[in-house]
């Protein structure tokens, strides 16, 4: 297999998923694009994963102001690999809307590293945020399901891409902001096979966390179906 890979790489050399530059090794990104990505590392809120100011954080185990004020969030932990900004935007949009499904492997690898403490805490199943079937027909693939399957390969934890459904069509969240996002997805998700979810520790996977409204509604649906716990893991988040 090694010599076959070498021949294939000679004929079709791997390219940077972001800028298209030829790579000597199939690392996903070239050094320049990799250095521009703002990876989310400690210190961050131990619950929601939001980055904390270094001056205000003494190390691991800190909570952000929002998590200190409320304890009614339906998830246990939330983590993201990197910040959603100008450096990472093209990489994610190409994957989500422009058929660059080959990006899933690299993105899932970064998520696996970012979610290390979640995997250590223990999960039983990986579940992607679903698309409404009409949107799935138009896009032809669910980017979150591709990430879930790649994470399943990396972690050995099974992925369930059918138990959670989006039974109500909503406007794209990108068109909305603030409370409109919350109202848009309220009650839009349900679990059609609760027996597979009950008592399980679920890792909920999506591409980008903006306000968290979509992930929260999915997590609530999973908790109503009897999930023991729900963690969330995304490629990027708006910081």
Kindly describe this structure.
With 239 residues, the protein is of the alpha/beta class. It has a single domain, classed as Rossmann fold (3-Layer(aba) Sandwich), CATH 3.40.50. 39% of the residues lie in helices and 14% in strands. The chain is built from eleven helices and six strands. It has helices spanning 2-11, 31-36, 65-69, 86-97, 103-114, 116-121, 133-139, 143-155, 179-185, 194-197, 213-224, and strands spanning 78-83, 125-128, 164-166, 189-191, 201-209, 229-237. Strands 1-6-5-2 form a four-stranded parallel sheet, with helices on both faces. Helix 5 crosses helix 8. The mean pLDDT is 91.
Secondary structure blueprint with pairings:
Layout: H1 2-11, H2 31-36, H3 65-69, E1 78-83, H4 86-97, H5 103-114, H6 116-121, E2 125-128, H7 133-139, H8 143-155, E3 164-166, H9 179-185, E4 189-191, H10 194-197, E5 201-209, H11 213-224, E6 229-237
Parallel strand pairs: 1-6, 2-5, 5-6
Antiparallel strand pairs: 3-4
List keywords for this structure.
single chain; 239 residues; alpha/beta; Rossmann fold; 4-stranded parallel beta sheet; two-stranded antiparallel sheet; 6 strands
Overview in brief:
39% of the residues lie in helices and 14% in strands.
Largest sheet: 4 strands, parallel
By CATH, the topology is Rossmann fold
Q: What percent of residues adopt helix (DSSP H or I)?
A: 25-40%
- Measured by DSSP, the beta-strand proportion falls in 5-15%
Low-confidence stretches: none
CA-based shape: globular
CATH architecture: 3-Layer(aba) Sandwich
Number of domains: 1
Number of H- or I-type helical stretches: 11
Number of DSSP E strands: 6
Structural class: alpha/beta
The spatial strand order of the largest sheet comes to: 1-6-5-2
CATH class type: Alpha Beta
Radius of gyration: 18 Å
């Amino acid at each position: 297999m090694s010599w076959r890979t070498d021949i294939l790489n000679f004929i079709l050399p791997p390219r940077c998923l972001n800028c298209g530059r030829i790579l000597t090794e199939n690392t996903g990104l070239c050094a320049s694009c990799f250095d521009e990505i703002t990876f989310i590392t400690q210190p961050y809120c131990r619950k929601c994963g939001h980055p904390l100011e270094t001056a205000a954080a003494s190390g691991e185990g800190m909570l952000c102001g929002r998590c200190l004020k409320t304890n009614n969030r339906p998830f246990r932990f939330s983590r993201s690999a990197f910040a959603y900004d100008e450096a990472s935007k093209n990489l994610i949009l190409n994957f989500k809307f422009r058929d660059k499904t080959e990006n899933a492997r690299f993105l899932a690898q970064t998520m696996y590293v970012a979610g290390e403490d979640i995997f250590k805490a223990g999960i039983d199943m990986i579940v992607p945020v679903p698309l409404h079937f009409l949107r799935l027909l138009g896009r032809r693939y669910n980017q979150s399901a591709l990430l879930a399957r790649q994470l399943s390969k990396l972690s050995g934890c099974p992925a369930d891409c059918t138990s959670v459904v989006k039974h109500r069509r909503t406007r794209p969240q990108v068109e909305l902001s603030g409370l409109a996002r919350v109202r848009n997805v309220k009650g839009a998700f349900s679990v059609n096979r609760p027996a597979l979810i009950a008592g399980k520790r679920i890792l909920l996977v999506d591409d980008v966390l903006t306000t968290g409204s979509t992930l929260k509604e999915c997590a609530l649906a999973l908790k109503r179906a009897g999930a023991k716990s729900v963690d969330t893991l995304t490629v990027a988040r708006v910081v």
